[in-house]
Amino acid sequence: MKTKFSSNLSRIRNSKGISQKKLAELTGLTRRMVAYYENECNNNLIKNINTMAKALDVNISDLIGVNNSKPDTTDNFKIDARTMDKIKKLLSLPKEERHSIYNMIDALIVKNKLDNKR
Fold first, then answer.
1. Which residues contact 5 (CB under 8 A, 6 or more apart)?
2. Measured distance CA(114)–CA(118) in Å, rounded
3. CA–CA separation, 55 vs 32, rounded Å?
4. Separation CA 39–CA 11 (nearest Å)
5. Dist CA 44 CA 108 (whole Å)
């Protein structure tokens, strides 16, 4: 019998139009492991994790080491409209292109730090 986790994983993956193979690539798991989690995941393990979290009065995310908190948005700086527009456009790019831009930004930051030390 499928667990709630298994059913939810399969349902959410399908609703996003992501194949098991693609999810495996995105997570670093094998496609076989994704299929296992969707079809045969041990209900006792999930139930036991939930039971232990309740006994310890913590969230499951605390127990398994996942931080679900939202980032602090009260930073002491403001982003001007032009920069925000650039960020939105950046986020619309494919993942590989975004990473190329991130790498360029990192390189410019390092260069700037080196120039300032001279």
1. 37, 41, 46
2. 7
3. 33
4. 12
5. 51
CA 74 to chain CA centroid, Å, is 22
* Residue 35 or 69, more confident: 35
CA dist 86 and 89 (Å) reads 5
What are the structure tokens assigned to 59, written together? 């969230």
Helical H segments across 1-118, by residue range: 4-15, 20-27, 31-39, 43-56, 60-64, 81-91, 95-117
**29 φψ region: left (φ > 0), alpha (ψ -120 to 50), beta (else):** beta
Q: Which two tokens mark 66?
A: 């996942």
Question: What gap in Å lies between CA 116 and CA 60, rounded to an integer?
Answer: 46
Q: Is the pTM of this model over 0.70?
A: no
Tokens standing for residue 15:
């609703």
Average pLDDT of the chain, as a whole number: 81
Q: Any idea which residue has 């059913």 for tokens? A: 7
* The token pair that represents 42 in the structure block: 């041990």
Closest CA to 50 of 62, 40, 41: 62
